Every structure is written in C-alpha cells, then in structure tokens.
Amino acid sequence: xxxxxxxxxxxxxxxxxxxxxxxxxxxxxxxxxxxxxxxxxxxxxxxxxxxxxxxxxxxxxxxxxxxxxxxxxxxxxxxxxxxxxxxxxxxxxxxxxxxxxxxxxxxxxxxxxxxxxxxxxxxxxxxxxxxxxxxxxxxxxxxxxxxxxxxxxxxxxxxxxxxxxxxxxxxxxxxxxxxxxxxxxxxxxxxxxxxxxxxxxxxxxxxxxxxxxxxxxxxxxxxxxxxxxxxxxxxxxxxxxxxxxxxxxxxxxxxxxxxxxxxxxxxxxxxxxxxxxxxxxxxxxxxxxxxxx
Amino acid sequence: xxxxxxxxxxxxxxxxxxxxxxxxxxxxxxxxxxxxxxxxxxxxxxxxxxxxxxxxxxxxxxxxxxxxxxxxxxxxxxxxxxxxxxxxxxxxxxxxxxxxxxxxxxxxxxxxxxxxxxxxxxxxxxxxxxxxxxxxxxxxxxxxxxxxxxxxxxxxxxxxxxxxxxxxxxxxxxxxxxxxxxxxxxxxxxxxxxxxxxxxxxxxxxxxxxxxxxxxxxxxxxxxxxxxxxxxxxxxxxxxxxxxxxxxxxxxxxxxxxxxxxxxxxxxxxxxxxxxxxxxxxxxxxxxxxxxxxxxxxxxxxxxxxxxxxxxxxxxxxxxxxxxxxxxxxxxxxxxxxxxxxxxxxxxxxxxxxxxxxxxxxxxxxxxxxxxxxxxxxxxxxxxxxxxxxxxxxxxxxxxxxxxxxxxxxxxxxxxxxxxxxxxxxxxxxxxxxxxxxx
Lengths: 293, 439
What we know:
The complex is a heterodimer. By secondary structure, chain A is mainly α.
C-alpha cells in the first residue's frame, strides 16, 4: 500500500510541475487563440535567471522567484507587443511560425550568450525530503506543486470573480463582441500573455533545484505540456490542472508496472482514447480548438 | 507574368549546376588524386561536429581538439604535407548529412572527421561512403558506425566494448570487492533508448547473460524528454540489485541521483556509461554524494598517470594544454580523444597513404601500431582489418573504470592501470548521508 501511495505521490508532484506550464499555455490559447510554441523557453529563461542569481549573488531560488518573475512578465509584454499582437489575425501558419521562430531564437540566444554548458542549482531543498505516513516527498517538488496549485486557484479566482477577469473571459468567448462592449481586447491579450509566460518563468525558477539547466531544457517538457493542454480541453484552466495530475499519475504508475517507456505510451494511449470519445478534451468546449472568433 | 513549368525547371537546373559546379550531376566528388609516387602533399580535412544545439558543448570541445592537432601538424610538418581544415555544423542527423555532402561536393574535402554524436555519425558516415570518401570517427561510440562499412576508421572506443567492460567489471572486480560470487550477482540495467544507449546495453546484456548472474531490471527511457525517473528507481528498490549499470547523459544522470536521494533508494554500486557520468557537470550538483560512483570510459589524460607516458607523449600533452589555455578553451575528454585521433591519423596514416582514396588510407591504417604509452589518452592504436566484423575499429581503444573520489575521477580498474583504490564500496545508504529529512 505504501508503494502505491509513493507512486501516486510521485505522479502528483511531477503532474504539479506540468500544471504550472500547462495552465499558462491553455490560457494563451483560450484567450489569444495562439499556440505558443515558445512557452517552455520562458521556463528555461526562468531557470537561467535562478541560476545566475544563485551563482553570482547566492540568492536562493525561493527568493529570486520574486525578482525573476516580474522580469519575465516584462519580457512577455515586449514579446506580446512585438510579435504576438502583430501576428494575430494573420493566417494561422503565420502565428505558428512566429512562436516557433521565437522558440528557436530564444534557445540559440541563450546558447550563444551562455553556451551549452549544463548548469545546476543546489539549495537547502535539493535532496531534502518530507516523510508523511512512510511516503517520501521531495521538498523542492512539494513547493513547486503548491505554487502550481496556488497559481491555478488564483487564476481561476481572477477569471471568474473579478471584472477584469470576466472581461478576459469575454474576449476568449468572442473578441469582436467584447470589443463592442468596450473591453480593451489588446490589453486583455497583453495581460494574458504576460501573466502566462511569467508563470512559466516562475516554474523555471522553482524547478531549478530539481532539474539541470541547458538551452534546450524546455524541449524536454513541451510535448507533454501540449498533450496535457489538449487532454484537459483547449482553453480550460481546471482541465489543464486535472489533465496534468492525471498524466503524472498515469506515467508514474504505468512506468512502475510495465517499464518507464510504457509510462509514455500509457498516457498517450489515454490521450488518444479521450480524443476519440471526447474530441474537445476532458473539460473543453466543443469548437474551442478552432482559430478565430 | 506567367512562367511555364519547363522554363522554371530549366532555370532551376542551370542555377543548381552553377552552385554545385556540376558535382550534383556527376554523382558526387571528383575522383581521388591518383598516386604520384610522392603520396599526399595537400589534404583538405572536413571537421563535422555539433556546434549548435544541445550537443554543442561536447561537439565544440572535440572540434577544438581537432583544430589544435591540425595546427600543430602544420607547424611541425615533418612530412611536407599541408592540411587545410574546413568545419561544418552537425547538430542533428539531417543537418549533419547535408553538411557532409557540402563538405565533399562543394568544399572538396578529401576526408571527413567527426562527430561527437553517435546518432549524427550513423547518418553522416554512410553519406560519406556513398560519395567514396574516408570518414575518421574520433569521438562517437555507437557500435553500428563501424559495422558493414568500408570507409570508417574509428580511433576511439566502440559502445559494445563499453557495455561489455561495464558488465565485466561488475561480474569480476566489483563482485570480488562486494564479496559476492559472480553467480549470485543481481544486476540492473537502465539506459537511454537511442541507438547509442541500446548498443551499449545490448553488449552488457550479452555479457551478463553469458554468466550465471541475474539481470533483474532492464529499463529504457527517452533521454530527450525524461523529467521523471521515479518509477525505474522504485523498481530498483524492489529488486535490490548489487549493481546498476546506468547509460546516461548529464541531465538524466543528475535527475536519477537526485530522485534516488529523494526516494531513499539505496544501491550498493552504480556504474555509469555513456559520457554523462564522466563530466564535472554530473558530479558538481551531487557534491559528496557522487563519491563512489563508477564510470566506464576510454581513458583520457585527465584520468591516467601521465608520468608513465613516454617523453614524446608528455610533450604532446603539454603542447595541447598550452594551446587550449591560450585560446581560453576548456580541455575536456572529447578534446583529448579528438586531438589524439586526429594526430595519429595525420602522422601515422596520411604520410603512408599513396592517395586520398579509401583503399589507400585503409592500407596505410593496417600498418599503424601506436603504443598506449605513446598516446596522451592512455590507449594505443591498431585498426581492425576488412575481415573483422568492426573493420576500421581501433582495437587498442580499451575502456577503463573510473570512480568519483572527492569529486574527481580516478582510474580504479583494471588494477594494473589503477591510480587509486576503491572507495565507498558498497555505497553508504542514504540514511547515513547528510540530507534533510523531516518526519
């Protein structure tokens, strides 16, 4: 029984890491109708931010997260103004290649600036463990998990309980009608994109004590994150969180029972099955996957 | 303006002909320079390594080693041969294949050297073979690179020998140190599911299965996308092997150990293979927890007792170190292997080849005998002939077992090459190590 609990706990913790990225990605799609291929690169930038502040100033990532996240937010503002908003309304392929190009640009910019050296951050949380009922929980992963859940909860509260959040939801439902009602659509886009990439950057800082850091580190996550976003339902924040946790548990459980390679196969099998039965994903609206509107 | 398809095709053909100088239509490179009786006087060498992307660090190290060997050869130039180095980026197999074609058909290189990445080399060496050009592999280890090929000379180790050496060490030296009979040994094998990882794993499995030892875990995972190895670690915890062979790169190697610590998975011995366990980037984040972990690898100047090398080899090493430092580069294992492989090719094969044809290079390679003590890497050079299943493979490239001790690598096996005794065998359980556990 303890082994089963350990497997579930491992799955939930890794799922929490996926959730923080997936929530931002699904939000961008839901509101802007943009598939942000560069999303994981903002996580990578967050990791480098944590690394440099730790290696130069000795700043713990749990402190530097409050410095790095606003910087990534501002970077998101710049990217939104310079690239995203200019490509919205253009042919779908323009939007796809704009974010794909941004992804490749960011990877190679980091490679040029900081080389391909593999870097790592070690803090009090690295290797520290909580033991709850015989189940061992990594301190670093538990903190990241808690941050992901808090962010998702905060975002849900913002979107459903505040006027500005409701405005963003209105833009997500119909940008033209929202504009006619006096909602500043461009501002909604700006806030949405910047908040989402800032969350990815924050996740990068929080996982720096867990994973090694190199220019292509985002690519280790991005396929799984896209699967989660589609599985949860494009544009659905609760769907992204639940799908992330589900993928984490399936991967962990199937990986233990049948082998690590089968862990990947299992969650892709569930993903395909859900798409056959419910093409809009677990919590998605029918038609949400269509661009425009 | 409406252009007919025929007209567009004609223009495209003329442009392509002009760009490629006709090589595209001639079916490849010009014929090798015929033997003149004086041998080769000028040699254009194509250097194909990853210089961008995830493998750029190791690939650049290898390119730097190649560059220094060529510079040094041209400066000393005892045979009156001038070598021109032309480099191309090979971050992945597709780009590498394009690169090798451009090097041969447009930049007219006589030989291609590479490649750091086994996945890239597996595509680029056959591409060079189709264009009838010799491929000298100094840094990629996959077994298949020298299988069923006629144009490859590999100066470094093959992955098969790495896997076999890892298993052999576990069943002999390590079993003895642990006080367990070979027949009672329980071995776990965890490896990346690419060609490189599987070729090492296959050789290790073959060796284990030929013994009476038991393979209790055999798990592969995709290195490029793995963010969680907890399930394989729990399997290891359940099966309690005496030793684990882990074929890994740096990121998954570090992840494996961080998660092992988190889950409290005790392993009496772990033998890393595949490059990741042999780099400082692996040991640095683990700190003292890396002490006692083994690594199977071709030896380098950094891991052997260099005082035992001949004066010539010591001078060569000193020259390499000076030049690396002068350019602000970092001397890593791949710098050593690429440098020494290139140096042997230029000094022992090129002067004795009648022309730049594959056949003449291979004939010259057949006579190469370089002693291990004459080499800065600590392994010698002797190439397998055409009748060998791995023709062109350096048969003297034999791996050694290193161990992390005070976060430095020391050769500990075989005993005759060892510079240090074993430490931490078996590895201390996590409960006895310094870590924070809150109940």
